[in-house]
Structures are given as C-alpha cells and as structure tokens.
Amino acid sequence: MLLIANFKNYKKGKNALKLAKLIQKYNKQALVGVQFQDIKLVSSNTNLKVYSQQLTKEFNAKKVKFLGAHGTFLNHSAYKLGLNDIKKLNNKSKQAGLKVIVFAANLNEVKQIKKLKPNYIAYEDPKLIGTGKSITKYKGKNVEKFVRLLKGTKIIPVCGAGISSIDDVKQAKKLGCKGVAIASAIANVKEKEAEEFLKEIKSFNE
User: Fold this and answer.
1) If exposure means fewest CB atoms within 10 Å of the residue's CB, which of 14, 22, 34, 206 is most exposed?
2) Using one digit for the tens of pLDDT, what is the confidence trace for 139-171?
3) What tens digit of pLDDT does each residue of 58-101 get?
4) Domain 2-205, what fold?
5) Are 167 and 173 in contact (CB under 8 A)?
6) Among 153, 193, 195, 160, which Cα is nearest to 175's?
7) Can 76 be counted among the known catalytic residues?
8) Which residue among 58, 76, 191, 193 is the active-site one?
9) Which one of the listed residues 58, 124, 191, 200 is annotated catalytic?
10) How far is residue 115's CA from residue 50's CA, in Å, rounded to a whole number?
11) How do the domains of the chain map onto residue ranges?
12) What is the pTM (predicted TM-score) of this model?
C-alpha cells in the first residue's frame, strides 16, 4: 500500500525533516506533503517523493518543481478549489512535470475530477478528518463505490480521513484502494507512536 503522509502544519523545518527521515527509514516509497518552505529541505536530504500541499500564484507549479517537488496536492480540505481551478492547476502541474493528487470530499466530486485525469484521486470525507474515525469503517460502502468509479482508468485510488491504525490500512486495501493518505496519525503524535505505525505498515507491505 502506498503511504501518502501529509505533514499539514503539524511539522515544519527541522521537525519536518526529522519526520521525513523516519518515514524513509520504514517506507522508501512513501510520498510526503510538506509546506512550501520545506520542499527543498526535505527533497535535498531524503530520497522520498516530496509533494507540495497546494499551489499559489507565488508558489506555482514551476516554482515548486524547481524547489525539488515531485508532485502536488490539489483541492485538499484545507485548500478547497473550484473545478475550473483544479482543471487549470492540474494541466499546469503536468506541463511542469509534476504528479498530481487531487482530493475529493464526496463521490460527485470524484466523478467530476475523474474527467481531468490526474495521477491520483484521494477520497476523504471532511467530517472524518482528524477524528480517528476511519473512512474505511464509517464510509466503507462509499470507498468501494469510489474504487469502482476509477476502474478502467489509469487514476490511482487513494482514501484518507481518520486512518489511524494498521487495521484501517488493511481495510483500505480490502476495499480496493492502492494507497492511504494519513496526516494526524503520523504527523501529530509522539515520535514513538509514529514509528510504531510506520513499522506496522512496513510489515503489512512485506
């Protein structure tokens, strides 16, 4: 299972780099979403694929690519966008050589975003984000529908929101997702807790 770790505002600067190195120790294939100011720091000091958490006029696709980003998030719950903006930024990101993960809050959004052909769609119910109540348990049927919506496309299905245990990760895979987006359970806990979770994910992937 692909791990997408979103640092949000939980980890910055040296703390972001420390967490990134911990993630790399257990999951060299992980994608990490960091703040603009940390893209160069993390990309220069790890081999992880670093993603920008959003794009702005100042930190546009070309700029974050120059800083060392491998890709970008679009339409995360903290940075919601209209469909036209998602379309423009998705196109500009691809032109700049960035991979794109577009977040969707519901199945209607998934249907619209699917037409734009991003690299990944991450289905996250905003009501469950940060609650510890996993989307795989509380919205399992919707996750299955989400995966079916992407069948026959090259878009990689990812789910997130409340995923905080290895059982949640296992259930995500069982429902058909190819990856999980995790923030609080890795970036907003004590280092020992984050490390234990990363170890469990590593064992599951093996």
Assistant:
1) 206
2) 999 999 999 999 999 999 999 999 999 999 999
3) 999 999 999 999 999 999 988 999 999 999 999 999 999 999 99
4) TIM Barrel (3.20.20)
5) no
6) 160
7) yes
8) 76
9) 124
10) 25
11) 2-205
12) 0.96
